[in-house]
Amino acid sequence: MADLHSINDAINKRAGRKLLPSILVSLLLLTLIFGSIYLQPLLFLALICVVIMLGVRELTHAYRTGGIELPDLPIMAASLIILLASWFGDTEGLAVSTGLIIPILMFLLLLISQKDFIKRSTSAVFSVFYLAVLGGFILLLANDPEGGERILALVILIACNDTFAYFAGVIFGKHKMAPSISPKKSWEGLIGGLVASLIGGALIFHNTFDVAWYIGSAIGLMTVVTATCGDLIESAIKRDLAIKDMSNLLPGHGGIMDRLDSALFTAPAVWFAFELINRYL
Predict the structure, then answer these.
(1) What is residue 104's predicted lDDT score, i.e. its pLDDT?
(2) Burial profile 183-215: b = 16 or more Cβ within 10 angstroms, e = fewer
(3) What is the CA angle 119-237-265, rounded to 5?
(4) Are 34 and 156 in contact (CB under 8 A)?
(5) Share of the chain above pLDDT 90, in %
């Protein structure tokens, strides 16, 4: 028993997180995602809205830690309006609500305080764009006759990259990819995620959407780029604000933002891929 504990501690130390809680949380999140979208799509809308609101709260708290004072409620309200407009108004709703809400939010922040206005307003606009506008593409994927299958494709693509990049990095990782931003990310991990995403993309798009396997692999390759960029950008935010995790809400994962980073950057790209498939194939 002591040997098992020693092995588990060694794995956790090498991985940089506790694996068992991380796996259990991942399974719970998958149950909520697919349980809601297949049971009632409006439940999925509610789930995403709650998740994005939690993300906004984490980000504004992180800003305050870094010396940028922002009110939670106006940014949460702006984000919620954009998300609802994306669901009920499709791409037009996303675009129009973004164009209307952001100037209103900036003026509201000016009314609240003129101090550090540029810093505060740009941070607030970044929060809304990062979470609500990019997150709106998750809802655009879901609010479709094939919404469940599209979300399944998104989850599989992200999981292939994140999971296999993680384990390949833990086992083989020696060459750091971006040590000044994310010290644990390695080129070996990137290759592991790439191989898995090429295979996963080919399988999910060929078997579920009757698309040629090489197109699915190309989308898998795209996912590696977007998910990695999303992860690096979120790591850069944390490093810039001098914090380790956005929060400790999810055991073994950190905060909501630590789970959203890949999805926020990948959802628009996958949505665009489906638009190209529908138009030209």
Answers:
(1) 97
(2) ebbbbbbbbbbbbbbbbbbbbbbbeebebeeeb
(3) 110
(4) no
(5) 71
How confident is the model at residue 1, as a pLDDT?
46
Q: What is the pTM of this model?
A: 0.90
Residue 253 pLDDT > 90: no
Q: For 125-180, write each residue's pLDDT tens digit.
A: 999 999 999 999 999 999 999 999 999 999 999 999 999 998 899 899 888 998 88
Beta bridge partners of 186: 176
